[in-house]
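Researcher: Next sequence.
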Amino acid sequence: QAQLVESGGGLVQAGGSLSLSCAASGRTFSTWAMGWFRQAPGKEREFVAAMDWSGTRTYYADSAKGRFTISRDNAKNAVYLEMKTLKPEDTAVYYCAAARVVGARRENYDYWGPGTQVTVSS
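Model: Next structure:
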């Protein structure tokens, strides 16, 4: 059974950094696009970043551009999200997901991890 599991969340002060990891198991996702989404309390889950299977195309939400970097290691069946200059509004549960086609639409993603909490204090 394919699984995605996020790690690396935690509490950080505004202006700080965090690195999230997503480990895949049960199948290889080397030919799948991978993405990161987040969901804050009372809000819908929103797109953060995505990368195609080869790592040559990346997409970012406007809120993430210039601060977040998505990367992947297909040999390790893993995807990462490096977050810098964090703001209180970045507080959310962060999810990694896998899709056959890269993009920002949640509906395109077939596999989801359980999420990891990121809290940014002011």
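Model: DSSP finds no helices and eleven strands in the chain. The mean pLDDT is 97.
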